[in-house]
Amino acid sequence: MHIPRSRELAPKIDPVTVDHHASSQHTVLAICNKARDAACATPIQVFDFANQSIERLAFSKTLPHEVRTAMGSLIEKSHTVVIGGGVVGSCIAYFITSHPRYDRESHTVTVLEASSIGGGASGKAGGIIAAWADPSCLAPLSYRLHCELSETHGGMQEWGFRNVYCADVDAMGEAVGHAATDENLTHFHSHAALSPSDNPHPPELDWITPNSITSYTELGRPENTAQVHPHLFTNKIADLAREQGANYVMGSAISIDYTPDGSQAESVSYKAKGTSAFIKIDASDVVVAAGPWTKTLLPEAPIIESRNHSIVVRPQKPVSAYVLFPELHPKIPQKRIPPEIYSRPDGTIYSCAPSDRDVPLPETTDLVDVNLEICDRIYHDVSSISQTFREGEIVSRQACYRPFIVGRARDIGPLVGPTGIKSLWLASGHDSWGISNGPGTGKVISEMMIDGKASSADVSSLDPRLMLQKGA
Fold first, then answer.
1. Please, what is the Cα angle at 64 between 58 and 69, to 5 degrees?
2. Which of 112, 198, 233, 362: disulfide with 228, CB 3.0–4.6 Å?
3. Helix 139-153 × helix 230-243 angle, to 10°
4. Closest CA to 322 of 229, 218, 176, 392
C-alpha cells in the first residue's frame, strides 16, 4: 500500500478548475503545485512521473477536499484483501483502519473468511494474554495493545478481559499425563526455570483438590498476564474493524493471482460461501492470515497444522482467576500432553489437550472432526485433581487446528511481513500464541504497509523471507 507522506496543508486553498474527464498528468501536477504553493510545502509525491504511470494510493486525510475531489477521477483506489477472518486477520483489518493515514473514501479493506469469524482456533483457544509469551520481540507490544483495547472498548464487559495468575504445576491425581516434549508440539515455558514456590498451593486456588499440587512455579502475575474469551474478542475486533470501514466477505480463497511474470500479487479468487460462484477480487495488497490453511495458498510457506481438542465445563460455584499448565502424576508410557486449565470470567473452566495430526486439515473450520474420546480423556484427567471440575456440567466438546512453523524454535515464528513478492504479505504461524499476539501482528503489519516499516516493534527476526528463502 502506498499512502503519500504529506504534511498538513493550509486550511484554505483557492478552488482549482479541472476537466474531470482529462487524464493529463500536467493537469494533476498543477493541482499539486497549487496545494504546495498554498501551504509553502514541498510538492506532494503522488505520481511516478519518471515512469509515466499513476501509482495506486490512498489519500491521507490531511489532503484538502478540493485537491482530493479534483484528482479523484485520476486515482486508482487501493484495495487490501486480508485472507482469514480469525483473530490475526481481524486485528490486521482493525489496525489498518485505525491508522492515522487511512482514508475509507479511497482505501478499501476486505476480509475474506471461509466459514465464520473466529470459527477455528481464534474461537476455541484458551485465550491467555502474556507479555512474556513468544516471541519476545512481539509479545510485549501485543500485551500492551490488549490492555489499551480493553480500556478503550470495554473489554471487561465485551470480551471478558481480566488479569490472571499463571503457573506450571506438578499435581498428583488418579488420572495421568505424559511429560511434555518438543515432539509432542507443546509450549516452551522457559519462564518456569525459577525455583518452585515454598508454598505450592496458593490459598485462593481453592478449586484444585487440596494437597494435590506438589510443585507450583509461577509463570505470570496479573501485571503481565491476562486472558480474554477468544471468540468474543475476535468477533468484537471484527465489529470494530467494520465500523471503521472494513468489509467482511464470506467465501473460501481458492488462489492468489499474480502478474504474468509472477512478481506481484494482483487479485484473489474465491468461492462464495453457500454457492457455486467463483469470484475474483482485484487487490493492491494481499495479506495471508489464514492460519493452518496458509499452505493451501502458499505451499512454500513452512507452516503445518496440529489439531487440538478442548472442553468447557460450567462448575457449580465461581472459581478464582488462574491459568495452569499441570504435569499430572503418575505418568503412563504413552504420548499424552498434560491438559491446560483456564478459569474464565464467564464462570466456566476451559481445558485443552492433547495435540495430534491424526486427521488431515479439512477445507474449512466448520468441518473439523471432534474425537469425543479425547474430550472425555481431558475431562477424566482434570477431574482427578479438581472436584469442582468433576462436578461441573460439560457445555462444549470441540477441536480446532493451530498453525506452527516446521522446525520451530522460540526465536522463529510467527512469520510476519513481506514475502518477497510485491504486494503479498504473510501473517501466520502463531502456534499457541495467536490470541495473545494478534493485536501486535495487526499493528506492525499496518505500519509496514502504510508507513513502509514497523515502528512499534523490531520484528525483523519474523521476516517471512528468511524462512521462505530457506525452504526454497
1. 70
2. 233
3. 70
4. 218
Q: Please list the residues that pair with 306 across neighbouring strands.
A: 402
The percent helix, strand, coil of the chain (3-state, each to 5) is 30, 25, 45
Cα distance between residue 84 and residue 238, in whole Å: 11
The β-bridge partners of 23 are none
Give the number of residues written for the chain: 472
Nearest partner of 436 among 107, 201, 91, judged by Cα: 91
Q: Are 252 and 279 in contact (CB under 8 A)?
A: no
CA-closest candidate to residue 216, choices 203, 199, 230, 233: 199
pLDDT in tens, the chain (472 residues): 644 333 233 333 333 333 333 333 333 334 444 443 433 332 333 333 233 333 333 333 344 444 444 444 334 589 999 999 999 999 999 999 999 999 999 999 999 999 999 999 999 999 999 999 999 999 999 999 999 999 999 999 999 999 999 999 988 876 433 333 333 333 334 443 344 444 567 889 999 987 888 899 999 999 999 999 999 999 999 999 999 999 999 999 999 999 999 999 999 999 999 998 999 999 999 999 999 999 999 999 999 999 999 999 999 999 999 999 988 875 543 445 578 999 998 999 999 987 888 899 999 999 999 999 999 999 999 999 999 999 999 999 999 999 989 875 555 679 999 999 999 999 999 999 999 999 999 999 999 999 999 999 999 999 999 988 654 4
Q: What is the pTM of this model?
A: 0.81
From CA 265, how far away is CA 261, in angstroms rounded? 10
Cα(268)–Cα(279) distance, rounded to whole angstroms?
8
